[in-house]
Amino acid sequence: MPLIRLADVSIAFGAHPVLHHADFQLDPGERVGLIGRNGEGKSTLMKAISAIIPVDGGEIWRQPGIQVAMLEQEPILPEQATIYDAVADALGDIGHWIAEYHRLSEHAHTSEDALTEMGRLQHQLEAQNGWQLQQRVDQVLSRLNLPGDLPVAGLSGGWRRRVSLARALVVEPDVLLLDEPTNHLDLEIILWLEDQLLQFKGAILVITHDRAFLQKVATRIVDLDRGKLISWPGDYADYLEKKAAALEEESRHNALFDKKLAQEEVWIRQGVKARRTRNEGRVRELEQLRRERAERRNRQGQAKIELEQAERSGKLVIEAEAVSFAYADRVVIRDFSTSIMRGDRVGLIGPNGAGKSTLIGVLLQQLQPQKGTVRHGTKLSIAYFDQLRAQLDPGQTLAEAVGGGKEFLEINGQRLHVMSYLANFLFSPERARSPVSSLSGGERNRALLAQLFGEPCNLLVMDEPTNDLDMETLELLEEMLANFEGTLILVSHDRSFLDNVVSSTLVFESDGKIKEYVGGYSDWLAQAKQSVANPAREASLAPALPKLPVPKKKMTYKEQRELETLPRQIEAMEARQVKLNQLINSADFYKGSPDQVKKTLDEAQALIGELEVAYERWNELEALAESLSR
Questions:
Q1: H/E/C letters for each residue in 434-478?
Q2: Cα angle vertex 451, ends 448, 456, to 5°?
Q3: How far apart (Å, rounded) are the C-alpha atoms in residues 210 and 495?
Q4: Torsions phi, psi of 487, nearest 5?
């Protein structure tokens, strides 16, 4: 018996149909990957299934009594709550009791009333199997490295997604809806999430651009294509093969259809002689052909991503020799040396907070190492795609933001109108005239790429460029980077993207050590696994192979105090970072005095490193506390 069934469902926004008489069924135990281009309506479909929005026609049937949980792309969370409260809140009344008991237990020594209330809550929780649910809350928070006492208000987009993911997982629902669950997660947590979903007993419907994640998790692919839901049994690799064949067949069918329609249109216009001999059946058939042609929605054209390439740089691009960099008492980079040559494609792998942004800052000479030297080659022209800080002015139209106020752009010697240039990134003229504030996540990322690629460069530095891009655009971006004659430095948690783009990887290992491997993610993983057999190498394995803390009987008072105060310190630093980013991205920022501009930029850069140190220390203390509580 299905859990959810869609029958003849239609949804439209104005004249744009998102679903057109679509059918779909989700059965128990299935793990379905929902794919389709940006803007096709995947998130809309999920919201309809979870009853957040109504449908215009047809029916969505849900098995009576089933529980559905959803991770949205931009989650709505209780702003006045702590992370612990927000996650427990997903469990309903029992969750509220768990959250209140947790809050009181933190301050029970200060009030007799608190102890009395804890006793009452304890009785309620025991009667409703609440302690098992409390354990589930604690486990999910620990696995996602979420500090329970940190306020939800002020959390960044990545942190909010992790909280929303925790809310969905803690419920253990019958149906789990996940909209881009791997965005902003590091590799270690993505691998953990894969294992969790493989063990999940309910049904899963997931939207993701992460092809490795999709291949590992999905047992069936459903393609949302021009308003229709088309089911493809098997994994993602099977889908790719069958979809290519289906598109080829569709193209042949459309060509034959159009040829017949053209012939019939010629016949109907042949004049008096033809009208005397024509039969009414053929006329009716022509009218039907016209209706079918009018209803046929052709596939949207492919993006044409081109990068404005500067003149060739010198053979040597960047040389680092015996570089070390530390924040306070934590070494982020230890005795690191490398030579990046023209044409190299270098990937950076490491967990969030490991120091990838710091390494980029050092290599680009934005940060001065405490030891060692960094030397740049000649004729460097650098373009830096930093999704966390690169901003488009929300008050401008897309054309104004990408064109910089210019009507024409020079791309590889070709003069292009800004509208034509944006059309290459799949933006219609109407969308190009829309304000930046109206862009979806995928559209914003494409716009950032369009803005970046409009400037000439021969060294391209990209920090997580793949978030929110559909798979076709991802593949085109991969092709563009393969044809790029310059040098690439890439930070990404997308394993397939790394495998397809980079020729070597720099992996953050223990104690600030960074080791270089030939090849992409899969090559590094294979080499790391081989080294497990060598005890001398075990301590230097990459972060995706978790480190175990040294056994201790209890935390020291200093460590306990540090664990309590770190969340508040991080919160303050994140709030300061938001203010600095707002200031830097304001229209008048660079009109100020050069000294003040430099001071603000230096503070913003230093804050990135300080946050990395704080995150890493927080993770260490959380892992220690968890190990001691077992």
A1: CEHHHCCHHHHHHHHHHHHHCCCECEEEEECCCCCCCHHHHHHHH
A2: 130
A3: 8
A4: -115, 145
| Parallel/antiparallel/unpaired status of strands 371-376 and 316-327 | antiparallel
Neighbour tally for 136: CB within 10 Å: 18
User: Residue 348: which of 181, 388, 358 has the closest Cα?
Assistant: 358
Q: Which fold has domain 316-538?
A: Rossmann fold (3.40.50)
Match 């149906």 to its residue by tokens.
Answer: 175
CA–CA dist 629, 515 (Å, integer) = 34
Q: Please, are residues 49 and 24 in contact by the beta-carbon 8 Å criterion?
A: no
39: which residues sit within 8 A by CB, 6+ positions away? 440, 442, 443
Phi and psi (nearest 5°) for 71? -100, 115
Distance between CA atoms of residues 559 and 83, nearest Å: 22
From 98, 96, 110, 81, select the one nearest 138 (Cα to Cα).
Answer: 98
Residue 462 CA to residue 13 CA, distance in Å, equals: 34
HSE-up of residue 413 (Cα within 13 Å, Cβ side): 1
- Grouping H, G, I as helix, E, B as strand and the rest as coil, residue 369 is coil
Nearest Cα residue to 293 out of 265, 267, 321: 265
Average pLDDT over residues 568-591: 77
| Residue closest to 305 by CA, chosen among 423, 145, 149, 430 | 423
Say which CATH superfamily domain 557-629 falls into: Valyl-tRNA synthetase, C-terminal domain (1.10.287.380)
Q: Is the pLDDT of residue 337 over 50?
A: yes
Between 224 and 292, the higher pLDDT residue: 224
**What distance in Å separates the CA atoms of residue 221 and residue 387, rounded to the nearest whole number?**
29
Return d(Cα 464, Cα 387) in angstroms, integer: 7
Q: What angle do CA 625, 628, 630 make, to 5 degrees?
A: 115
- Residues forming beta bridges with residue 490, ordered by sequence position: 347, 462
pLDDT tens by residue, 344-395: 999 999 887 788 889 999 999 989 999 999 999 999 999 888 754 556 788 8
- CA-nearest of 234, 236, 197, 183 to 214 is 236
Q: Is 484 helix (H, G, I), strand (E, B) or coil?
A: coil
Q: Which tokens is 267 given?
A: 């016949």
3 state SS of 216: helix
d(CA 322, CA 334): 8
Bridge-based pairing of strands 31-35 and 220-225 is parallel
| Pairwise CA distance, residues 112 & 191, whole Å | 45
CA distance 250 to 266: 24
- Nearest CA to 364 out of 325, 328, 402 is that of 325
Of the candidates 367, 473, 361, the one whose C-alpha atom is nearest the C-alpha of residue 424 is 473
309-332 residue pLDDT tens = 778 888 999 999 999 999 877 889
Largest CA distance in the chain: 103
Rounded to whole angstroms, the Cα distance separating 256 from 210 reads 36
pTM for the model: 0.66
Between CA 200 and CA 197 the distance in angstroms is 5
Residue 5 in contact with residue 61, Cβ under 8 Å? yes
- Only one residue has tokens 């991503």, namely 305
Which residues are paired to 168 by β-bridges?
none
For residues 219 and 31, is the Cβ–Cβ distance under 8 A?
yes
Strands 57-62 and 4-13: antiparallel
Task: List all residues 6 or more positions away from 299 whose beta carbon is below 8 Å from its beta carbon.
Answer: 225, 226, 247
Mutual angle of helices 594-629 and 356-363, in 10-degree steps: 150
